[in-house]
Design brief:
heterodimer; A: 234 residues; Rossmann fold; 9-stranded mixed β-sheet; two-stranded antiparallel ribbon; 23% helix; B: Phosphoribosyl-aminoimidazole Synthetase, Chain A, domain 2; Phosphoribosyl-aminoimidazole Synthetase, Chain A, domain 2; 7-stranded mixed β-sheet; 28 strands; disordered N terminus; disordered C terminus; magnesium (chain B); EC 6.3.5.3 (chain B); cytoplasm (chain B)
Amino acid sequence: MRIGVVTFPGSLDDGDAARAARLAGAEAVRLWHGDPDLHGVDAVVLPGGFSYGDYLRCGAIARFAPVMESIIDAARGGLPVLGICNGFQVLCEAHLLPGALTRNQHLHFRNRDQWLKVEATNTAWTNGFTPGQEILIPVKNGEGCYVADPATLDRLEAEGRVIARYINGNPNGSQRDIAGITNEAGNVVGIMPHPEHAVEALTGPSLDGLGFFTSVLRALAGSSAAGSQAGGQQ
Amino acid sequence: MTQQQTGPAISETAFAATDVLAEGFADSPDTVQRAEQSSDDLQPYADLGLKDDEYAKIKDILGRRPTASELAMYSIMWSEHCSYKSSKVHLREFVAKVPKNTRMLAGIGENAGVVQVSDDLAVTFKVESHNHPSYVEPYQGAATGIGGIVRDILAMGARPIAVMDPLRFGAHDHPDTARVLPGVVAGIGGYGNCLGLPNIGGEIVFDPCYQGNPLVNALSIGVLPVERLQKKEATGTGNIVVLLGARTGRDGIGGVSVLASATFDEEAEQRRPSVQVGDPFMEKLLIESCLELYDAGLVTGIQDLGGAGLTCALTETAAAAGTGMRVWLERVPLREASMSPTEILASESQERMLLIVTPENLAAVLKVAEKWGVWATAIGEVTPRAEDGTPGRLLITWNDHVVVDVPPGSLADDGPVYERPLREPSDLILLQADRAETLPRPSTGDELRETVLRMAASPNLCDKTWVTEQYDRYVLGNTVLAQPEDSGVLRLDEQTNLGVALSVDGNGRFARLDPYEGAKLALAEAYRNVAVTGAQPIAVTDCLNFGSPEDPAVMWQFAQAVQGLADGCQQLGTPVTGGNVSFYNQTGAAAIHPTPVVGVMGLFDDVTRRVPMGFKSAGESLYLLGETREELSGSEWAWVTHGHLGGRPPKVDLAAEQTLGKLMERVSQTGLVSAAHDLSDGGLAQVLVESCLRYGTGASVTIESAFVQLFSESAGRALVSVPQGHEQAFVALAAELGVPCARIGVTTEAATLEVTGQFSIPLDELRTAWSETLPKLFGGPSFAGLPTEEPAAEAAPAPVAAAPAPAGEAEVPQIRSVTLELIEPKAQEPDLP
């Protein structure tokens, strides 16, 4: 299985995402922001960082990169896409996910080891977890406060599209403690904390982050067994 | 290249004054031709910080008066910051006493020292000051401090892999500290986080002596394949001089000679234009493009532009090679078209590098720059030496006017050197006689308990999470240990687990009481912090923060500290690989405590054997290593409970530090200990507090003469936690190496810190005391209980398509980079009905 990791100018956790994909057993394929070719990858990770400096609204410029046009099309066709931190912001800006990430309520960048409770496990990126499972993943962001209008929040909850919530403290003021969400089809997931920083005992607070990457491999294996097109880039 | 300062009363308006001279005729700058014709014209050299004899020497070198641009260049390059004119004679100690070491690939005089760590890999690291700008404009001052040290690392051919920041502020409760500290911390985070470099440690110290002169030091470390080591020499006649990175603007003009080379006065707030403005995104692109250029073998020579900007980079690269250089200044991409040649040469705009490339490689270099969206401009070429073999000249034109024609070596190497007068501070004898050992002490268990809590909550010993949470410590995925651990530990190689440990320490109070011993104590502490993690200390970098060198007492402190550090490094076998001197940390007659800050790097053959500081499980034996003496002078206890500073600092025994280090390396190889924590500020009491609170594991200890045992700051000590079954082996190994070793207690199931027969403190109570201090001082809304309910419906942000107002960065003025081409926006298609 080949997992593509996009590098925008200003991407910072792209190497970490590629490492996590490798540790999960996938082949990591580096994708360049200016190249619309997805090189036949089976899934894509939009990594953390400050794409284009994020001097404008976070992710607002990255959303228009040539590679994003291909990813947006492919995601609508079922390609599994995981946006982490800045990647989550890009997915919201690209309208693949609803809502927006705004400045942390306390106005500081914050980096801490964060407990999350997993909710939706029927997505391409969370099927390896059990509902209610508590996991420890580093969070680090300056603009990670998830906001949406109440109707959207109600709908996300009613449709089971919240994939994880912050527990034991909300690090950024996100509404309803939302740490990550998915789209209706369950192939596109955005999460503010960084699973790619919790994949090795030596460097992470846990190994819980690996579950996101093994989940997508399982989803891809399942879909290819079922003869589905879900993983293919068109 | 590094540093701070010159003489008195320099005003940045002097640069404007040179321009007046330069622009006497419209569009016609002061040229060499005109200088030859008007050699006796008065020039504002004194306003630029040059002394009468220094100006005379310039005229002597040139055989005429300097042009306005030349005058600015000499004033910058001969400033204290760039020329080390006051410190040079003392810094020779480091070279004279450098221990034999086959690992050194580059040392003092380079952008940063380079140390070989394996057959293939080398590490480069350096600590530098950005004190003065950070006082004037805390956010940008601290941010560009990170940017500057990172470019030094980059210029050696290394990929920067982490930063650390030793910070010192005035009194914790002074209103100005509430201005400076949050800005500095946000600046370090804002720049370092955006650059993608983990921040793995540092120091935060409060002391009224730093009021008005905060110390903002920044350390960076990088790693490189040995063969990728870069040179700064502008070799090869006909090679092209390329300016890479941000465009040049009016920011930071005269930063080194104006800000960093004089003491502050009441006009400090008017100096904001002298502070550079950072763009971390541009620096990230600069890093990636430079590394791609190195790997493709396209670079002949490289130098970063920092303090002294283009002036420094042009003269140093040419002087190092002995070649000449021809530069067309109008080719430099500008932010403001109206900049004069003097301003272009003096600008300290950030995120720029100067490359020397062969003509054949130029196209490939420009292509890499284009890929990363970075400006790259050929601004000149390397010219030959004179026919008689003497070094070439630096010839700079601006729109066909010759504005500079100088021997580059006269700027870079032939600056003035001063043997400043030295005199022991007149109050030192009295200060040393006023010993803290005679102060009243807590005597009962209750008093001891209260003292432990009070100390834990004191600004210098309390939990620093409020600061460190604002830094990314995870990015790059190789951070093995980070603050609050004793050292930052990084993995260098995922295959072999080769790694390094880094610690940076200083103690201004100890150095005030005895600068020679104080410098050695700083070295000993950093060495010990690295050693307790199990790493083998191998190299040193230093940032020497002092008052005005024109004060003989300050100069004496400086000379003593350099001597102490050089002697210490010689004895420990750890060479000083590079560093920085910061003078003029002084307001009026009041200098800061002499504050040598020392960074030590250690090596792990296998970083998985690192020893962390926290107690993880109950039932382990606690051993105190080293000898505890009644040493309270200069201690945190004397300061917190009595506001006292006097006496003599603790004794330093570097041989004992080495033995302790050897023991720690051995036990980490054999897995005999589960935790180890160095004893320093606050003594054993603070170590117990920190090691218990790290993972919430209690401890019970039994000690004679509890007060001295708890609060003495004797050097050469560590506390280790030994799992059951390993005690005998551990004690035997300590005895074999001759490290004093006493079993003082155990880790416990009970979540309390207990000193038997004296007191017991529940960890919850301890944690509250320890962790509340900084949020209360600087935190604004409490960190613990953020409201998580969405706002009332009418206040809620509009739905998806109309994203909320531009988030964030409001208080963060940033220069936007406009070098990237925007893709035409397409119609938006919200995925919600």
